[in-house]
Specification:
Blueprint (H helix, E strand, L loop, with lengths): L18 H5 L27 H5 L3 H26 L13 H8 L7 E3 L5 H6 L4 H9 L8 H4 L10 H15 L14 E6 L6 H13 L3 E7 L2 E2 L2 E2 L19 E5 L3 H16 L5 E6 L18 H8 L3 H12 L4 H23 L19 H15 L6
Parallel strand pairs: 1-2, 2-3, 3-7, 6-7
Antiparallel strand pairs: 4-5
Helix pairs in contact: 3-4, 3-12, 3-13, 4-10, 8-9
């Protein structure tokens, strides 16, 4: 059986060879509770609760969303290529999840704080983090070279689900500092934590939901349900939809079409406003799909058929937004060509700057470990220095 074949022996017989794929939980449409403002074909769907939030966006804002979507996909594509060429140790692609990240990222205010996992390149872009800082981490030349407090965007978290607890603790802190529910637009703050569907099986995420619910902490839990926890599909780990779990923690839960940048923006903005005003946390499930591998060390053809991917290609977040912008006259061919050219320039810059990154000094690993000197660290630093000095021409 090839990667493109569907194993019909393992599924009910059907006239349409893709019937089994289309019926799979991994390609379902998200159900009647899913909030959607743009269909996969780019047709606007009215929604009484969220229309006003989208209609408040200017044409310039909307073109900015498109630019974000396209440019971060170019960064992601170039980073994947760099890893394949041996220039990065590993890369976690966001391909297919751009709308979930850009929509929620653009709903944030400057004073809000982000706790990402390791795939939130689109959110990092929206917060002004230089893509080179992301590549430096995966190239192994720094530990995440951005200042978390300058961008209000924390360093990437590799431990699955740990960032949900970090976010809840931080949210409880700003709540106790009095920076929630004051009615001052430039002061009231919220926190957002990003994680995947696989992380919802971790104790850390559930503990965070308990603490946030009990304390009415100003935090939004943003789950990008991309259908696969590495090789584990939703139906093997989720007995009920993720957003429905929220009721057990006493907080609101929402499912949004994660490939619809307008719907994600509206739902995230509403939840963040809810948190900033002192009304407590929200769990958002962004129903999306991981088009690529889990990371570049993964081979998705070992556990999913390419026919499933083909179904999701028709729900591409950039294609649907492009269709709507063009239909509404918000953007024209000249604009799309301009952004494409900007993407080409960005990709070339990413490659050039990545290859020019210097290796770190070996002794730098001992910096910034403790506020004050530590005898064990200093002993190890001296031992490594002596070892390096033992080589001829070390100086």
């Amino acid at each position: 059986m090839t990667d493109t074949d569907v194993d019909l022996e393992a599924t009910p017989r059907a006239t349409d060879p893709l019937a089994a794929i289309n019926a799979s939980p991994n390609v379902r449409d998200g159900g009647p509770d899913m909030i959607q403002l743009l269909t996969p074909e780019g047709v606007r769907v009215p929604h009484p609760e969220y229309d006003a939030l989208v209609e408040s966006l200017s044409d310039e804002d909307l073109r900015g969303f498109y630019r974000d979507l396209v440019l971060i996909r170019r960064v992601d594509t170039e980073a994947t290529a760099l890893q394949r060429q041996g220039e990065l140790g590993i890369w976690a692609s966001l391909l297919g999840q751009e709308a979930a990240q850009v929509g929620s990222g653009r709903a944030l205010r400057p004073q809000d704080y982000v706790f990402p996992s390791y795939r939130e390149h689109g959110v990092a872009w929206c917060r002004g983090v230089d893509p080179m800082n992301l590549l430096g981490l995966f190239r192994g030349v720094n530990h995440g070279g951005w200042d978390p407090h300058e961008k209000n965007f924390h360093l990437y978290t590799i431990v699955i689900g740990a960032q949900a607890l970090h976010a809840t603790g931080y949210a409880m802190g700003i709540q106790r500092d009095g920076d929630v529910g004051t009615g001052e637009e430039d002061r009231d703050a919220a926190v957002i934590s990003y994680f995947g569907d696989g992380a919802t099986s971790q104790g850390d995420v559930n503990e965070a939901l308990v603490f946030a619910g009990v304390n009415r902490a100003p935090v939004v839990f943003f789950c990008q349900n991309n259908q696969w926890a590495i090789s584990v599909p939703n139906e093997k780990q989720l007995p009920s939809p993720i957003y429905q779990r929220a009721s057990g923690f006493g907080i609101p839960g929402l499912r949004v079409d994660g490939n619809d940048v307008l719907a994600v923006y509206a739902v995230a903005k509403s939840a963040l406003d809810h948190a900033r005003s002192g009304q407590g946390p929200t769990l958002i499930e962004a129903f999306t799909y991981r088009m690529g591998a889990h990371t570049t060390s993964d081979d998705p053809t070992k556990y999913r058929v390419s026919a499933e991917v083909e179904v999701w290609k028709h729900r591409d977040p950039i294609a649907r937004f492009t269709a709507w912008l063009a239909h509404e006259g918000i953007a024209d061919r000249a604009f799309f060509d301009q952004v494409e050219a900007e993407g080409d320039e960005l990709a070339a810059s990413v490659r050039e700057r990545c290859l020019a990154m210097p290796d770190p000094e070996p002794l730098a690993m001992f910096d910034h470990i403790y506020v004050e000197e530590h005898p064990v660290v200093e002993t190890e630093r001296a031992e490594l220095r002596a070892y390096l000095d033992s080589f001829e021409g070390a100086h």
